[in-house]
Amino acid sequence: MDITIPNLGDIDEVEVIELCVAVGDSVDAEDAVIVIESDKASMEIPAPAAGVIETFKVAIGDQVREGDVIAVLAAAQGEAPVEAPAEAEAPEPEPEAAPAAPVEAQPAGTQTSEVEVLVPDIGDATGVIVIEIAIKEGDEVAVDDLLVVLESDKASMEIAAEQAGRITKVAVSVDQEVEQGTHIATLLVEGRASPEPAADTSNTEPAPPAPEQTPAPEPIPAPAATAPTAQTDAEPIVPKGAKVYAGPAVRRLARELGVDLTQVTGTGNRNRITKDDVKAHVKTRLTEPAAAGGGLPQVATVDFAKFGEIEVVELSRIRQRGADNLHRSWVNLPHVTQHDEADVTDLEAFRKSLKQEAERKGVKVTPLSFLIKACCAALSEFPEMNASLHPDGKQLVLKKYINIGMAVDTPEGLMVPVIKAANRKSIWELSAEVSDLSAKARDKKLGIDDLQGGTFSISSLGALGGTGFTPIVNAPEVAILGVAKMQTKPLWDGAEFQPRQVLPLSLSYDHRVINGADGGRFMVYLTGLLSDLRRLALE
Ligand code: CAO
């Protein structure tokens, strides 16, 4: 049987913009076969019965009119030949195709007037309901702004404003059944109305629905581009009845899934939204990380003053920003922290032996410089620790430079200045830079450049004490080393216990990027370097 173009209302010709199926495809009754579009509306032409698409008689870009055969449907294997459905069914009146142009029954000519926007000729469509209302009383609309969306079981149609003006009445409600001539809204049009079709101005009396005079019916809204939204005034907020370019089946799916189609990017012809777009949108929303705080149970707000005296102090901007960053990292990165200890007895002996020389050079050498040096060597060995996960989660950005961020405790809050190209610097240079950057941090003299470009961070709390802690990764870096207080501990040397200086280390990493085995290898390598300084000389 032939699949033909149904009654298109006042529209003569429309363009085929999409073939929804291919020759040989099986379709069920009502499955969309092609999509046609006029300058203001689009409509899916469904299969009148189940069957197999035998041949197409049209191609994308063809102009078609009522009665044209678009495809031939054969009976599915083993089934009776496809019969044309009953009379009424044959041509599928598609509300969509129905001219959706606002009908203005106003006489043209005057200055300010109220214009009734009516449902235009919607072809043979029946059971048409209002599914969306994009306006409310008092809204200012521009030409082509969406007013309402109508839908039948086979098509949808957006009714757009023919004229700019203010909505003084919304005469329909969602789910209300409408037909040609139904009063949708009343528009107060200011200025001189155009006498032509589009002109609905003039007179005071709202003209009765006059479908016949209806200005060009406007079927389904074409993609945004097609709607040359005339610039109204440069003033108020135009209630952007965001144009959605999607067919009825897609709209239905979106409603079922609770998807706001204005948020969906269309990949179909002329950015038409397809069912796959809706599904992809849902998938993305379900998998994307929640915005900081979003979707998390909130901590209760408590009136602490009820229980005793309190004092409220403002947090510095540095602390506020630091808190945001920490929260963002904590909720976005699956953290794992791995603990280990390095025997730094020899390192400490060597470091102390440098004291006089360091004083001559005017620098203070702390364990931190050796830690930075050792971390650079370990990062070269394990480049994935010196990387960032691409936002799409599909790529790892390996950085060929090594810039070490160093957490500095300041009265204003935590700051993390960055030692650039740390792997190319000597212990003397690193020591000087640690002193310089921490002094600048505490004196609030750090520049933006000092705070950018880190690839790995170290948070040293050793001078304060503690046996270990779990640092939070400084995202988008993927790992951070926490350093606690060095202690003298008895270590078994194979024959007896020896007093050794032991440095506790805690490596936190983004488990999406670093697996436990790699984290363990990194730590073993790092503690090995710190325990045997000679190995550092090999780097
Ligand atoms: N164990 C024992 N002693 C340590 C040590 C450790 N792990 N690390 C440093 N020390 C010693 C130093 O050798 C120094 O001793 P001397 O004065 O006798 O030589 C003393 O502690 C003070 O060191 P320092 O703090 O001046 O210098 P540093 O290079 O170790 O650290 C800096 C510099 C800026 C990292 C540090 O001052 C700082 O601000 N740390 C706080 C970091 C922080 O707040 N992290 C938490 C962030 S939230 O994750």
3D architecture notes:
This protein is of the alpha+beta class. The chain has 3 domains: 1-111 and 193-210, RNA polymerase II/Efflux pump adaptor protein, barrel-sandwich hybrid domain (OB fold (Dihydrolipoamide Acetyltransferase, E2P)); 223-291, Irregular (Dihydrolipoamide Transferase), CATH 4.10.320; 325-537, Chloramphenicol acetyltransferase-like domain (Chloramphenicol Acetyltransferase), CATH 3.30.559.10. It is 20% helix and 25% strand. The chain contains 9 helices and 28 strands. Helix 6 (367-381) crosses helix 8. It is elongated, with a radius of gyration of 35 Å. It binds oxidized coenzyme A (CAO). Oxidized coenzyme A is lined by residues 366-368, 406-409, 414, 434, 438, 459-463, 471, 483, 485-486, 503.
Summarize the structure.
The protein is of the alpha+beta class. The protein has helices at 248-257, 275-287, 317-332, 345-353, 355-361, 367-381, 427-442, 516-531, 533-538, and strands at 2-4, 13-19, 26-27, 32-37, 42-46, 51-56, 63-65, 69-74, 103-104, 113-118, 128-133, 140-141, 146-151, 156-160, 165-170, 177-178, 183-189, 335-343, 387-389, 396-398, 404-406, 408-410, 413-415, 418-419, 456-460, 479-483, 487-492, 497-510.
Estimate percent helicity: 10-25%
CATH domain class name of the largest domain: Alpha Beta
Poorly predicted runs are 83-109, 192-242
Radius of gyration: 35 Å
CATH superfamily of the largest domain: Chloramphenicol acetyltransferase-like domain
| Class per helix and strand makeup | alpha+beta
Q: Give the overall shape.
A: elongated
How many helices in DSSP terms? Answer: 9
**Number of domains as seen in the coordinates:** 3
Bound molecules: oxidized coenzyme A
Q: Ends: how far apart? A: 79 Å
Reported for the largest beta sheet, the result is: 7 strands, mixed
Indicate the CATH topology of the largest domain: Chloramphenicol Acetyltransferase
Calculate the mean pLDDT score and round it: 81
Fraction of residues in β-strands: 25-35%
